[in-house]
């Protein structure tokens, strides 16, 4: 892959005339914003350096993916950054549905997140559970219709004994038809588990 053009530069790249990290953090203007009076050269050099070194890093990334990182067009730069982040489609992944900390108040299976894609779509599904006060058995699955029009279920875990605290997030990639996709979680103890889930279009 050829490297794209890049005209972004880091201001004072060697920090030869700038505040140290400790000095910068202690600057009154950093804490409260600028006011009238003489500006601090050292502080502003540190400020410009921090802003531009991040911009330079992003520009380097864009150029390394084969796209031009130039300051001549905001729209072209936005398109280049978007394409660099997701080279397959030139578009960012979209969140179809996301639920945080849904309280499982019963032992019945609960729909935590649901989403209906507009057409056949790859979806990345994630689910996690937090247990409040005592070890609880938890099950989680995603129900959907596959590309062939068949009802399908993928299981994250079945009757897993989960300790108190946050338990690992599990991810499943599916290809779903234009029909409801539902993440369902069941807790063995009522009012002791919280479920989070996301459905992301990829």
Structure description:
- The structure is a single chain.
- The radius of gyration is 25 Å and the shape is flat.
- The protein has helices at about 20-25, 30, 40-65, 75-85, and strands at about 95-105, 110-115, 120-130, 135-145, 150-160, 165, 170-175, 180-185, 195-200.
- About 20% of the residues are buried.
- The protein has four helices and nine strands.
- α3 (about 40-65) crosses α4 (about 75-85).
- A hairpin with a 5-residue loop joins β4 and β5 (about 150-160).
- The mean pLDDT is about 90.
- The chain is about 25% helix and about 35% strand.
- The strands form two sheets. Strands 1, 3, 6, 7 and 9 form a five-stranded antiparallel sheet that branches. The protein has a four-stranded antiparallel sheet with strand order 2-8-4-5, with no helix packed on it.
- The chain has two domains: about 20-85, no CATH class; about 95-200, Jelly Rolls (Sandwich), CATH 2.60.120.
- The longest helix has 24 residues, at about 40-65.
- By secondary structure, it is of the alpha+beta class.
Q: What tags apply to this protein structure?
A:
4-stranded antiparallel sheet; 202 residues; 5-stranded antiparallel sheet; alpha+beta; Jelly Rolls
């Amino acid at each position: 892959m050829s490297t794209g053009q890049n005209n972004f530069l880091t201001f004072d790249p060697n920090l030869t005339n700038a505040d140290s990290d400790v000095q910068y953090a202690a600057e009154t203007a950093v804490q409260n914003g600028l006011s009238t009076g003489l500006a601090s050269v050292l502080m502003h050099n540190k400020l410009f350096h921090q802003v531009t070194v991040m911009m330079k890093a992003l520009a380097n990334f864009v150029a390394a993916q084969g796209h031009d990182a130039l300051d001549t067009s905001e729209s072209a730069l936005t398109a280049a950054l978007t394409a660099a982040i997701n080279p397959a489609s030139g578009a960012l992944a979209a969140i179809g549905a996301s639920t945080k900390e849904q309280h499982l108040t019963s032992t019945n299976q609960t729909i935590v997140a649901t989403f209906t894609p507009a057409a056949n779509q790859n979806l990345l599904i994630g689910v996690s559970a937090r247990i409040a006060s005592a070890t609880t058995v938890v099950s989680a699955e995603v129900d959907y219709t596959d590309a062939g029009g068949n009802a399908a279920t993928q299981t994250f875990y079945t009757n897993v004994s989960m300790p108190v605290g946050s338990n690992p997030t599990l991810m499943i990639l599916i290809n779903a038809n234009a029909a409801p996709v539902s993440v369902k979680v069941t807790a063995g103890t009522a009012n002791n588990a919280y479920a989070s889930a996301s459905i992301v279009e990829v």
